# Entry
Amino acid sequence: MQERLKELQMEAIEKVNAAQDLKELNDIRVAYLGKKGPITEVLRGMGKLSAEERPIMGALANEVREAITTKLTEKQEKLEAEEVQKKLATESIDVTLPGRPVKVGSHHPLTAVIEEIEDLFLGMGYTIAEGPEVEKDYYNFEALNLPKGHPARDMQDSFYITEEILLRTHTSPVQARTMEKHKGKGPVKIICPGKVYRRDSDDATHSHQFMQIEGLVIDENIRMSDLKGTLATFAKKMFGEDREIRLRPSFFPFTEPSVEMDISCFMCGGSGCNVCKKTGWIEILGAGMVHPNVLEMAGFDSKKYTGFAFGMGPERIAMLKYGIDDIRHFYTNDRRFVSQFNRV
Ligand code: DAH
# Structure
């Protein structure tokens, strides 16, 4: 029995030494030390031994078991370490290799400009309002002091769907709708970005569909100087701190007085160049003090409340900012154009 145990020990250790991987090692463990293994079997036969022999054999069996276990553990650690090394070797990454650039999409230049403008006005406490693109004649014209037959309707050639419904020609109807919702109570402080439609032939500066951003502020004691300060802040943010603005008298049916705002040319600083057509000034937007008729039609007391409004074309602003010479580039989805505005 003693010899059998010694033999088993040697045999097991030999196998452990020869084992190539952890699975093989585990098989050996089960085969020799498991419940059905030969050592257990030897121990089971101990009942037949004499009282003197039994403790000697017991001690030996334990020794053998321990010797095999120690060897198994040693080998297991070795194999595990080897496996880690192998993994490190095969999975190593050369961090000095140049990376493959991930293609990142970007905002359309028009979206980028609109968001920049939105951010500026949100920062000044405005909220964003929206309205339908298929609009009632009432909101698009009438509520803006443009009754049927008014000659100024001809300034905006329209796509009519029925006599009373059209594609909105500007974002000003959102003014009328928002004021109406306020039920005669100020303050109102909104900008409305959105698509508008006009029956124009497309060329480098005209598009039958384009974007506008409308602004409207109504409260007690709103003055022209508030409008001027707001527009100056806007001009500086969009075109540089050195920009100056100038307001020229103009006409819009929904504002009185009405103005057009120019900014000092960001290209030549005012001395005259091609961008400003040698005038030193660039026309940017229309604005004015909300006409009392417009306030009253929307339910505001024009003796208590005053307000200012402005409307601009983000395409024009983007064209000036990025030196884009044709409005159609925004809408033809030529990737050679849009990809120039990719983030690096
Ligand atoms: N709605 C005008 C247009 O499309 C732009 C405009 C001018 C809007 C003056 C305004 C404003 O709110 O005060 O031509």
User: Anything to note?
Assistant: The first strand starts at residue 127 and ends at 128. The CA atoms of residues 6 and 114 lie 87 Å apart. The chain has eleven helices and nine strands.
